[in-house]
Each structure stands twice: as structure tokens, then as C-alpha cells.
Design goal:
The protein has 512 residues and is of the alpha/beta class. 29% of the residues lie in helices and 23% in strands. The chain has 16 helices and 23 strands. A hairpin with a 5-residue loop joins strand 11 and strand 12. The mean pLDDT is 90. This is AMP-dependent synthetase/ligase domain-containing protein.
């Protein structure tokens, strides 16, 4: 171990002779030195054995300094976009190949997690000679999480009570949009956004987790439920830069005080991101038009929590004059995929392994299938977990800074599949057909029997429903004589308090 005084002289030498880039801070650790880029959030640790090479000229020092330059930490300074590109490359190079990551995960869970210990033979990393071998592992299902909550699916070394008491762990519950709610143990603090999200969104974010305001249903998560009715101070998170905005039990009758509170809180908090249920936020837009209230300016809006219609996205984008990006996640893992400024929905390959499957196996691009995720860094490991969603690979490579992450089209929930014309039809297919007619604000399609559908339609203010047009838009998916249209002024929320665009009373399939 090198004395602290020698490390301090090393830091001074770097700044005087070769100079770290402005914004890069060095701090002394017990067994080395950590360099942190305060402008991007990137950090690297140098061990004590590397320190002497930096104090005097020579090949070893030159090589180490060259590595720091490749990480964007040294002068001459590049622009921040280039710095982030270099640092993303360094992070990517530091990760093992995907197959090795999966093997490491298998080795860890069969050693530490009771559920997987009991099934160790099925999760033997020596059986993974290829990714095709991984497809032979069993699926994890929601009933497995329910049956083994809480201790069966967390490490035996985890003191759950202590983690809950000190706030490092929390128990999240799903919204109830599935038949039964389930609970899961998670870390209280995670990095919701990937490194370098400035380049993902095309707007400045900075090196810290951005200030985020949440506007969603009153029962989406236990944390939101407790805080949504409190004062401004009570609704601020004590462990993250977040604010939970007041919500409503009746999104189609948002009262003026709730609307004013929304605007005032956003103006006061000045979030970089508004994370919102898109249909609830569309109701805010309707209420603002009704009351003649100007909505606040927000740099970025991320939509999540439930399926977003094309009309909702268009209305929100126009009303807030802000980009609206998809943030696809779930209570079990809220970092599944994220939309970039070019409109591509990228799988979060840094934290999940993502599969799309149907009855015959992995789906080809363009074919919707069930989503199975495997998580790399969660307290509750998920391995080939059927999360209850439907998606399709696009088969396209995006040209944004995150082009190495594959892209998908999100199709909605498996439970919202309807059966028509001899096949399963997804919420996204229905919404693509409905489109964005000027007269329509909201709709909900319900399948009541194998040959009977009902569509509730909420017209825009001052508009009349054009049922014939809607029937024409949908006829390639659903036979017109099987559909009953019902104009309404509101759509009653589901038991989960989500609004929903598609539902069925018939059994659906787990894997299409």
C-alpha cells in the first residue's frame, strides 16, 4: 500500500504535468486512486500498483496515460459527446462476452439463491456452450415469484430486515394489471438511465441521475401510493432526485386544483424528466384545454406504466412541446428497453438479456412473441422470466450512439391479446390500425366472446364519433359485423387503475 502523502503528490503531479481534463476529480482510496468525471458520471479506479508508473516518465506511465486519454479523462479535452463515446467504449470493453456473463450468473445463483440451489442441475454453467444452450433452461414464471417470496429468490447472505430498515432494500408490488399482484425485493437506489443518456435523448442530462417527476396511477407502486397525497416536501424522495406528483382516482374528471397542483409542482421542482402514465397525462392535456391553463415546460417526457396510444403520444408531444420517449419496464425490472431520439426502442443490453419467443422457439424479426428477460444485477435474479409482454425484433440497426443495443417494437401485454380472424392480435396492431383521427381522444376495445367485440370511444371536445371510419380502419383485423361501437364520455379505469386500450374476457396464451 502506498502512503497517502505519496498519492497526494501523484495527484498534484498529474494536474501539473499532464493534467486531467477539467471536471475530472481524483480521490484517494485505501488501495489506490479513483478518477471521477463529474460532467459525465464515469469513474475508474487505479490500483496502488499503477500509481508509481504515473509519477515519472517511462513506457509504463505512457501506456497508462494513453489509457486515460482513451477514456476521455485527459487533456487535450474533446467535446463532451466524444468524451461520452470513449467512456461508453471503455465500459463496453470492461464487460465479459455475453455468454460469459450468463455463465457467471448461473454459477452465482445456484450458489446463493435458494430457488436456484434446489434446481442446480438445470442451471449448471458448464452446460452453456452457446446461447442456443441457454434456450434450454426452464422459464421462470410469476407463480414462481409468488411461491418463493421473499427469501427464496434473494441471496442467503442478504439480511432483508436490515435492508428494509436502513432503506437500501424495498419491496415493490405490481400494479394488479395481471390476475394476481406479486411482490419482489429490489434495491432502493438504481441508475434508471444508462450511462451517457445525453446522447440517447439528444438533450443535456449531465453526469448524475436527473431530477425526475412521476405522474401515474394512484396504485402503480406502493411508494407512489403513500406519497401521492402528501405535501410537496412529503412527496419528494429522500434517497433520489425524484418528486411524486399528485394524481387522481378519476383521470377523466381531473379537477382544476389537481391540474394547478401539477403545474405548480413541476414549475417549482424543475425536473429534467417527467415520467408519466401516457393516458393519465393525456387526460391532463384535455383538462388543461378545458380550463385554458398553460402546461409547464419539461425537457424530456418518458412514457411508461401502461401501453401508450399513438393519439396520446401525439397529444402530449404537442401540448408540452417536448420529446416523448418510451421507457419500457415493469415492477420486476424497470430497465428493459429505452427509446432514443431517433425513435428506436433499444433493449437495455447492459442490464438484461432479452428473448422473444413463440411456440416454435426464438422469433424472427417482425414476428410478435412472448418476452423472456434475464437480469444481471438485480437483488432478485430473473432467469428466462416470462414477464407477460409481447414484442417483436425490428431487425434494424439504429444509427444513434447506442446502435449496438438491439431494437424492438413493443406490442403490449399478453393478457390483452384478442383472437380474431384465426390469429392473435396485439394491442399495438390494433392501435396502429386506429391511428390518430382528429375526432378521437380515447378508445378501449373489449372482446366479450369469440365472435363479439365492443369498442368504447371518447370523442375529442366538440367532435362527433365517426364510427364508420373507425370500422374501416379496423376491418382487416376484426370483421365489422362482430363489433359494437359505444360512444362514451369517459372510460372507467381497470382494477389496477390503469385506463387500458384493449381487454378480453377470454383466456389468452402465455406464449403465442
Amino acid at each position: 500500500m502506498i502512503p497517502a502523502s505519496d498519492k497526494e503528490r501523484t495527484l498534484a503531479s498529474w494536474h501539473m504535468n499532464r493534467a486531467l481534463r477539467e471536471g475530472v476529480q481524483a480521490s484517494i482510496l485505501p488501495d489506490g486512486i479513483e478518477l471521477t468525471d463529474t460532467q459525465t458520471g464515469f469513474a475508474v479506479e487505479l490500483r496502488s500498483g499503477d500509481v508509481p508508473a504515473m509519477t515519472s516518465p517511462g513506457p509504463d506511465g505512457d501506456r497508462l496515460w494513453s489509457k486515460l486519454s482513451l477514456m476521455g479523462l485527459a487533456k487535450p479535452a474533446a467535446d463532451l459527446k466524444e468524451v461520452r463515446r470513449r467512456q461508453r467504449g471503455a465500459l463496453r470493453r470492461s464487460e465479459p462476452p455475453l455468454l460469459d456473463r450468463l455463465r457467471d450468473l448461473m454459477a452465482r445463483i445456484r450458489r446463493e439463491i435458494p430457488f436456484f440451489c434446489e434446481r442446480a442441475a438445470s442451471y449448471d454453467p458448464r452446460r452453456l456452450a452457446s446461447l442456443e444452450d441457454f434456450q434450454g433452461l426452464p422459464y421462470l414464471r410469476k407463480q414462481d415469484l409468488r411461491a418463493n417470496f421473499p427469501n427464496g429468490l434473494i441471496p442467503t447472505s442478504t439480511d432483508l430486515r436490515a435492508g428494509l430498515d436502513d432503506g437500501s432494500l424495498t419491496i415493490l408490488a405490481t400494479s394488479g394489471s395481471t390476475d394476481e399482484r406479486l411482490q419482489i425485493v429490489t434495491r432502493s437506489i438504481i441508475d434508471r438511465l444508462p450511462f451517457g443518456s445525453d446522447d440517447l435523448f439528444g438533450v443535456p442530462i449531465g453526469g448524475k441521475q436527473p431530477r425526475t417527476a412521476f405522474f401515474t396511477t394512484p396504485v402503480c407502486a406502493s411508494m407512489v401510493c403513500r406519497r401521492a397525497a402528501g405535501t410537496f416536501e412529503e412527496r419528494r424522495s429522500s434517497i433520489s432526485p425524484d418528486l411524486y406528483l399528485r394524481t387522481t382516482n378519476d383521470p377523466f374528471a381531473i379537477e382544476t386544483p389537481i391540474l394547478k397542483s401539477f403545474c405548480e409542482d413541476v414549475e417549482r421542482f424543475q425536473p429534467s424528466i417527467l415520467a408519466a402514465d401516457p393516458l393519465y397525462l393525456q387526460c391532463v392535456v384535455r383538462a388543461a384545454k378545458r380550463d385554458g391553463i398553460k402546461l409547464p415546460t419539461i425537457p424530456v417526457i418518458q412514457r411508461g406504466f401502461e401501453f401508450a396510444t399513438r393519439k396520446a403520444i401525439a397529444d402530449i408531444r404537442e401540448a408540452f412541446a417536448a420529446p416523448v420517449f418510451n421507457d419500457y419496464g415493469a415492477s420486476e425490472e424497470n430497465r428493459i428497453a429505452i427509446e432514443c431520439h431517433l425513435g428506436s426502442l433499444h433493449v437495455r443490453a447492459d442490464v438484461v438479456y432479452f428473448e422473444i419467443i413463440d411456440q416454435s422457439g426464438p422469433c424472427q424479426p417482425g414476428i410478435p412473441g412472448a418476452v423472456a428477460i434475464t437480469t444481471f444485477d438485480t437483488v432478485t435474479p430473473l432467469v428466462r422470466y416470462l414477464i407477460g409482454d409481447v414484442a417483436a425484433w425490428t431487425g434494424r440497426t439504429c444509427s444513434c450512439a447506442f446502435s449496438d443495443w438491439p431494437t424492438i417494437d413493443y406490442h403490449g401485454r399478453s393478457k390483452d391479446l384478442v383472437r380474431s380472424r384465426g390469429r392473435w392480435v396485439t394491442a399495438a396492431e390494433i392501435d396502429d390500425a386506429v391511428g390518430t383521427p382528429d375526432w378521437l381522444d380515447f378508445y378501449r376495445l373489449s372482446q366479450t366472446s369469440s365472435a363479439s367485440f365492443e369498442i368504447e370511444v371518447v370523442p375529442a371536445a366538440g367532435e362527433s364519433p365517426e364510427v364508420g371510419e373507425l370500422s374501416t380502419r379496423l376491418k382487416h383485423l376484426i370483421e365489422p359485423d362482430k363489433v359494437r361501437y359505444r360512444p362514451v364520455s369517459r372510460i372507467d379505469p381497470l382494477p389496477s387503475m390503469k385506463i387500458g386500450t384493449v381487454q378480453t374476457r377470454l383466456p389468452t396464451c402465455e406464449i403465442p
